[in-house]
Specification:
CATH class of the largest domain: Alpha Beta
Structural class: alpha/beta
Shape: elongated
Helix content: 25-40%
Bound molecules: L-homoserine
Number of domains: 3
Radius of gyration: 24 Å
Number of strands: 18
Strand content: 15-25%
CATH superfamily of the largest domain: Dihydrodipicolinate Reductase, domain 2
Largest sheet: 12 strands, mixed
Length: about 450
């Protein structure tokens, strides 16, 4: 019998589950007229069936048993919105084995266990929708795997964690210290359950793993991604960055060069006139360069009930159209997830960028020449410098911007410099984008 509607079961009735349900229920009529067939929310499974999420659900929809969703022969699409690795992984694999298409927002799961899940989906000829896993409402997955299919992607720069962007924005605009800004972000409900994922760059690295895999065909390589968070950023460095004409952002970078791809997440100084540098608060942005398009910038809300729910519903609608069109007999190729790449991931020590360095040095004759001598011995060339104040008895900040240098050389040089008697404490370093090539590609 020909199918005339598509049934959906959601597992996980948290923030994103509630947003998804709200859109499916409130916009049922609009969705039906746009698609030409109805999307029916059959069940939502969550262990907590009591908490008021502010949505009036038709009776019998909310259940506490995920197995009923996974084993219901009438459910076509299982939407996993519970998060975490276990039992989300087992539930998804069970849904796939049962021939159900899957939609998930679970970036941590895909970044770490994506191979197994996509392999199983290919075997069972079902689709996996994961738009909501990266940059919330911004349809970046669709862009990379469908809209830009005619491009060779050259680079991606993303602000893909709203919490850390909110914290850095507050530190920049209001001079708050890191801890105070984090507390504000938590109070507003932006941070993940464990904020470590947000502030240590792990959430960004999960999302970058997915984007890099799609863009360059490399395996999901979460463990190989260099990841550094924002916990050591101080108002002092934000102020110096500003004096040099830069803003500090937690940037996720994937860049192809020859047969290698750099994949890294770390606080980065960006020229203030780059469009992406003006992305503030909880907003996300992804800047992409492709050989046919030149450059694009995508901007929008990266988290929250309705924005992320919108991304989930977009995936549900796509898969539902496919189900109706093919009546479940054909498998839609998971474009971009065929991992036959020629690229290998560049080791972080081989990456070359410009650097910002802040030394705490005693203002004595010869100190600067010792520092610059060590930098020179390691092939690091200084571009500009600021020294603030003069206190003979106390270390003062000496701040430098360098030309492009290799990470390995920089780490070796800093080790030597940190050992100098005239240098107090560890030198602060930040990587800089756009330090050498102010060519306006990113500019407004
Ligand atoms: N904690 C994430 C963020 C939520 O701050 O961006 C969406 O993944």
């Amino acid at each position: 019998m020909k199918k005339t509607s598509v049934n959906i079961g959601i597992i996980g009735f948290g923030t994103v589950g509630a947003g998804t349900a709200r859109i499916l229920l409130k916009k049922r009529g609009e969705l039906e007229s746009r698609l030409g067939f109805p999307l029916t929310l059959k069940n939502i499974a969550d262990l907590d069936t009591e908490r008021d999420r502010g949505i009036k659900l038709p009776p019998g929809i909310l259940i506490n048993d995920a197995q009923r969703v996974l084993n219901d022969p009438e459910i076509d699409i299982v939407v996993e919105l519970m998060g975490g690795i276990h039992p989300a992984k087992e539930f998804i694999l069970q849904a796939i084995r049962n021939g159900k298409h899957v939609v998930t927002a679970n970036k941590a799961l895909l970044a770490t266990e994506g191979h197994e899940i996509f392999r199983a989906a290919r075997k069972s000829r079902v689709d996996i929708g994961f738009e909501a896993s990266v940059a919330g409402s911004i349809p970046i997955i669709k862009v990379v795997r469908e809209s830009l299919i005619g491009n060779r992607i050259q680079s991606i720069y993303g602000i893909i964690n709203g919490t850390s962007n909110y914290i850095l924005t507050k530190m920049t605009e209001e001079g708050l210290d890191f801890t105070t800004a984090l507390r504000e972000a938590q109070a507003l409900g932006y941070a993940e359950a464990d904020p470590t994922f947000d502030i240590e760059g792990i959430d960004s690295a999960h999302k970058l793993t997915i984007l890099a895999s799609l863009s360059f065909g490399i395996p999901f390589s979460f463990k190989k991604i260099y990841t550094e968070g924002i916990t050591k950023i101080t108002p002092l460095d934000i102020q110096f960055a500003s004096e040099f004409g830069y803003k500090i952002k937690l940037l996720a970078v994937a860049k192809q060069e020859g047969d290698t791809v750099e994949v890294r997440v770390h606080p980065t100084m960006l020229p203030k006139d780059y469009l992406i540098a003006s992305v503030n608060g909880v907003f996300n942005a992804v800047y992409i360069e492709g050989d046919a398009i030149g450059s694009h910038l995508y901007y929008g809300r990266g988290a929250g009930e309705m924005p992320t729910g919108s991304a989930v519903v977009g995936d549900i609608a796509d898969i539902a159209k496919n189900i109706i069109a093919t009546q479940n007999t054909e498998y839609r190729t998971q474009t971009g997830l065929i991992q036959d790449t020629k690229y290998r991931i560049k080791k972080m020590e081989d990456v070359q960028t410009c650097y910002y360095l802040r030394f705490s040095a005693f203002d004595k004759p010869g100190v600067l020449s010792r520092i610059s001598g060590i930098l020179g011995n390691h092939n690091i060339s200084i571009k500009s410098m600021i020294q603030k104040g003069r206190k003979l008895e106390k270390a003062v900040p000496v701040v430098m911007m360098t030309h492009e240098a290799r990470e390995r050389d920089m780490m070796r040089a800093l080790k030597e410099i940190n050992g100098l008697p005239a240098v107090s404490g560890k030198t602060v370093y930040l990587r800089v984008e756009g330090g050498n090539n102010q060519d306006g590609r990113h500019k407004g």
